[in-house]
Amino acid sequence: MNLYGIRAIYKFEMARMWRTLMQSVASPVISTSLYFVVFGSAIGSRMGDIDGISYGAYIIPGLIMLTLLMQSISNASFGIYMPRFSGTIYEVLSAPVSYVEVVLGYVGAAATKSVILGLIILATARLFVDYSVLHPFWMLAFLVLTAITFSLFGFIIGIWADGFEKLQIVPLMIVTPLVFLGGTFYSIDMLPEVWQTITLFNPVVYLISGFRWAFYGVSDIHIGISVAMILVFLTLCMVLISWIFRTGYRLKP
Amino acid sequence: MQPDISVQNLSKTYEDGFQALKNIDLDIQKGEIFALLGPNGAGKTTLISIICGLVNPSSGSVKAAGHDILRDFRAARSAIGLVPQELSTDSFEKVWNTVSFSRGLFGKAPNPAHIEKILRELSLWDKRNSRVMSLSGGMKRRVMIAKALSHEPDILFLDEPTAGVDVELRRDMWEMVRKLRESGVTIILTTHYIEEAEEMADRIGVIRNGELILVEEKTRLMSKLGRKELRLHLQHPLDTLPPELVDQPIELSEDGYELIYTFDSQQEQAGVALLLRTLGELGVEYRDLQTRESSLEEIFVGLVHHD
């Protein structure tokens, strides 16, 4: 195991985060705060409780998930896309690091950033609404697992993308709608029955539901199914990445 | 002695069907400076890229420092430093950090003293806290060399190291390459500048259309394929070549003041003596004469354009 190699990539990527602190930390915190102000305080105060939880508190897990998914994907995809774009990837490819080590470095850093960000947003939420965390261990576990899974997904996008447009398209066109339709702002019980069934094909529903369970002990879907779904997605991403490195897809001609 | 780099039957066909390398066999000995010459698109960079792990080989095998580059990639790659042709740098990083990053990436424990030594040798020490993007092109090239040397490789690949580099840096680079060789590093360089190969290389390989058409010691190559030229500056101009000389490889310059005689350097020197004697008999007087050996460049052009 080339530990120095993993550390070098990890440190490099974390340094990138500090360099772009405004973009990587401040902007998601500000936009989530706006959600809390508008939906949590302003509109939320006029809404009834859902599952016995005040609306402002109800949307916290979903909003954290929204940022977590978006940031994991964009951090990880950018992290591997940039060296491909600038050509500095040559050094990683010629170094004595295995693909597992490369992934650990890049994805590890991206996931770390997302988890830090998730916790910052959780702390920020305190300024706007009152909430409690029923299962702190599971809350953290969900946070970390989701960050890792979607950083892996972002890594795949960063390798697949051959232009900045493609890099943006998946988070914007696919992930945002999935999160908004995934029960961030409502319980899926509130949807007409047909839409409830359709919603079950949205993987984000399972994440948000599970995460909300960790906070308040209530969920649309059984927690076991949520955990299983995230593990399935994690495995899929890992299989895809191992295929990428085995074939050299978009990395080695 | 086991070769430091051993390429056997290596071929590469890209996905679009372009065959970049055809059955390359090449051994490079430890501590030698090997120059790979060839026109653009001949396969030089593909060959280097395969050895360094940037391109997958289609068939054949490569060993670096005794280790198979695929099966034993860690050991093989640890021994190799690569300075690619393109100036690809992390613009936002500081010089010190980017060079230290490379050392870590190659699995070596931090060693600030070594990084300092490299930066000083490459005249980068004053720039160690500058961001890479603020450096000139030549300085960026030095940074890339520093990165390649950061993990103390035994084998160094320089792909067109002096392309677009000013004279001073080129001299520095030659100096550095010589020093590295003295410390036992094997150096493989590709170049367009034949004078570079002529100046530095021990052996030369010429690659054309993906085939290694020749591998030879530089001195032997030059004597084997080199041509010599004898120029005679005449006292009085000639209108035409004397009939006695017409069937010889002799030309008369346009102003009639110069006779140019070309011959293989391997050939017996008798040709020159005979020529001079003939001229004496004809009463052609000359005031000066000079001989010149053809440069590697001329040899190279002759080889590459010979079909």
From TrEMBL, chain A:
- Membrane topology field: Multi-pass membrane protein
Q: Which GO terms describe its molecular function?
A: ABC-type transporter activity
Where does it reside?
Cell inner membrane; Membrane
Mind listing the UniProt keywords for this protein, alphabetically?
A: Cell membrane, Membrane, Transmembrane, Transmembrane helix, Transport
Where does this protein have coiled-coil stretches? none
Q: Name one GO cellular component term.
A: ATP-binding cassette (ABC) transporter complex
Does the keyword Cell membrane belong to this entry?
yes
The ABC transmembrane type-2 domain, residue ranges: 19-248
Q: Which domain of life is it from?
A: Bacteria
TM region positions: 20-43, 55-82, 102-125, 137-161, 167-186, 198-215, 221-245
The primary location reported for this protein is membrane
Which protein family is named in the record?
A: Belongs to the ABC-2 integral membrane protein family.
Identify this protein by name: Transport permease protein
The species this protein was found in: Marinobacter daqiaonensis
Automatic annotation (TrEMBL), chain B:
Top-rank taxon of the source lineage equals Bacteria
**Annotated GO MF terms:** ATP binding; ATP hydrolysis activity
**Where does the signal peptide begin and end?**
none
Record-annotated ABC transporter domain positions? 5-234
Note whether Nucleotidyltransferase occurs among the keywords: no
| Gene3D superfamilies reported in the protein's UniProt record | P-loop containing nucleotide triphosphate hydrolases
Write out the entry's keywords from A to Z.
Answer: ATP-binding, Nucleotide-binding, Transport
InterPro entries noted in UniProt: AAA+_ATPase, ABC_transporter-like_ATP-bd, ABC_transporter-like_CS, ABC_transporter_ATP-binding, P-loop_NTPase
Q: Which Pfam families match?
A: ABC_tran
Asked if the keyword Nucleotide-binding belongs to this entry, the reply reads yes
What SUPFAM superfamilies does the record point to? P-loop containing nucleoside triphosphate hydrolases (SSF52540)
- Recorded protein name is ABC-2 type transport system ATP-binding protein
